[in-house]
Amino acid sequence: MDLEQTARTGALRAEARAWLREHVPARPLPSLETEEGFAAHREWEALLHSGRWSAVSWPEEYGGRGADLFGWLAFEEEYWAAGAPGRVSQNGISLLAPTLLAHGTAEQRARVLGPMASGEVVWAQAWSEPEAGSDLAALRSRAVRTEGGWLLSGQKTWSSRAAFADRAFGIFRTDPGAAKPHQGLTYLMFGLRDTGVTVRPIGRLDGKPAFAEIFLDEVFVPDEDVIGEPGQGWHIAMSATGDERGLTLRAPGRFLAAADRLRELWREAGDPADTALRDRVADAVIGARAYRLFTAVSAARFAAGATLGPESSLNKVFWSRYDIALHETALDLLGPDAEVADTAWGEGYVFALAGPIYAGTNEIQRDIIAERLLGLPKGRR
Amino acid sequence: MRFLLTDEQREFGRSLDALLTAADTPAVLRAWAAGDHGPGRALWGRLADAGVFALAVPEAYGGVGPLPVEAAVACVELGRHAVPGPVAETLAAGVLLAGAGGPVAEEWLPGIASGAAVVSLTLEGYGPYAPDADAADAVFTVSGDELRLAPDPGEPSASADPARRLFRPEPGGAPVAKGPAIRAAVRAAGDWAAFATAALALGCGEELLRATVAYVKQRTQFGVPVGSFQAVKHRLADTLLGLEFARPLLYGAAVELASEVSRPGAGAGSAEGSPGAGAGSAEGSPGAGAAVAAAKVTAGEAGYAAARTALQLHGAIGYTEELDLAWWLRRARPLRDAWGTPSACRARVLAG
């Protein structure tokens, strides 16, 4: 049992550290949930891509570095420790790209991945619907067969990044007569500026348009933009959300860096007599370490051939709760200044508040933990 | 990086589990609590035969240690089965005496490794109690750079865990070793005592969760198992979450303890003021003391949370000594607080 990195991971880490030191903007970019900030983050993605750092785990032929999970984890540690910007392309890179690599055609990969890696095309996810949130299989948006493709109609909502993004991916009902709700669904991609698409930005709690509703009225999607076989959308999407909850949505490096900043804030602003607050700072430091090591176990199991199963629900509940506790602690350290909007801690806090809600609410995750890991009987939710 | 137990380490844990399952530890606990240490000492000997107490004793003294990963595996199993006696203290004594060296090490370490010697101790910077000193063959105390063999342990106080008895060794006693090596040995032994206690707490919590999951599947109300209710499920899910995130901290601490041993010029002797993250250690490494403290507070809190969950979800029957469950329920909080209270551990983590 060890935590030593291989020479290959060490070399990747060192190269990333050197590149980031030279290229990370000296001043934080404006919030990526604003038009100006979105554009600035898109430019940052292009710069990252020019150094071949935007998707290190992808194969080299698509602009990645073929890094294994350990390499990716090391890169993420360096990335967040360097204070680099948030990733406007995360939905595409961590959700759509693994789906395309697993289920897409060579033509789709060649066409989609390059512009995704450079930030030229930013992707939004179109999963939830007004009547299909935690119960995703209840979705109603339809894709009807037409010559050479499909016509999409319906409504998607809570679509992160959709206010300023270029394209979206999601699942749609193609066989309304299927016997079960999760059958007869198809996974496909469409343009957010295509004919028949209306995007209505939604202000999140702080007013920034971090997500949007998408209205679809007979939007044409050519067959080449269907991922996998029609009717297999649920299976394909679940393999993507498994990855999302599992390892790639919240890299431990992000929290290690945040806990380091919190510890610095404590040293600068903390009252040594306030041991209650001190204990919460310690818990943030401990939690970041726990999450890093938990992930190291998952990565080692994955490398040994295991698949990530319902354990990923433990991961999701942990980080989403942790992220809020960390930011609340920082705000408490700031005292009266915590109220000032648009600070790094304040924006991080607003972002963290959504964690227990999206990517499968924590209530659904606890059901999964109880039923699939502890073997408790199913009951009414 | 391969942050996983080897097949051999897993098999070691399974063999201890089998040994302890067959040993009827609740009966051993009842005897131990009544002052009859015979069955407990017999079990201790069998655990020693399986290699448990040799894990903290160096080869030069008849042991195989220090092997912190294996020690964690063993202590999780001992905690799961609520083995009575000064387990963490005896393992820590192995480290303390190995650091002290000299005649006292020659005298006691082979017996610790073989199971012939049960040892309790107190260390400066921790609580005043030497648990189960009445069952121990030796009780060690330390003041400054002097290691002493305590005289008569005196009268015990009862513990919240009826299978433990608390003794405050009298000051004095014969000095058995002296010098700067003692201070370093005390730091290393304190880390090991906290580390072993963290593993015991994790194992205790695992058993509490297992027993409670079994109970809520079988107990019915309103015509259905109470384990089908979401409020019950979610509490158990949170309990599992706490334990599962304590486990990697425990093994992370084991890796840190192992690397302190293997790092040339490091080890217990240079632990003072070492902020970790030093050359040669893994990226982001906090150093053994802070890593152990993180594991201790997290495993201690998770084990105690499991006890609270077990108590609540068993309902009234959990609040009695009718079930064997009571042994684990009463043990969780002493394990949380022994060898580093949560507050002390958190302060240690922030000290670096």
The main sheet of chain B orders its strands as 1-3-4-7
Q: Report the biggest beta sheet of chain B as strand number plus sense, adding barrel if it closes.
A: 4 strands, mixed
- Topology-level CATH name of the largest domain in chain B: Butyryl-Coa Dehydrogenase, subunit A, domain 1
Give the low-confidence spans of chain B. 264-282
Q: What order do the strands of the largest sheet of chain A run in, or round the barrel if closed? A: 1-4-5-8
How many domain units of chain B? Answer: 2
Notes on the structure:
The complex is a heterodimer of chains A (381) and B (352). By secondary structure, chain A is of the alpha+beta class. Chain A is built from 11 helices and 8 strands. In chain A, the strands form 2 sheets. Chain A has a 4-stranded mixed beta sheet. Chain A has a 4-stranded antiparallel beta sheet with strand order 2-3-7-6, with no helix packed on it. In chain A, strand 2 (142-146) and strand 3 (149-160) form a beta hairpin. Chain B is α+β, with helices and mostly antiparallel strands and 352 residues long. Chain B folds into 2 domains: 7-181, Orthogonal Bundle (Butyryl-Coa Dehydrogenase, subunit A, domain 1), CATH 1.10.540.10; 183-351, Butyryl-CoA Dehydrogenase, subunit A, domain 3. In chain B, strand 3 (138-143) and strand 4 (146-149) form a beta hairpin. Chains A and B meet through helix 3, helix 7, helix 8, helix 9 and helix 11 of A and helix 7, strand 9, helix 8, helix 9 and helix 11 of B.
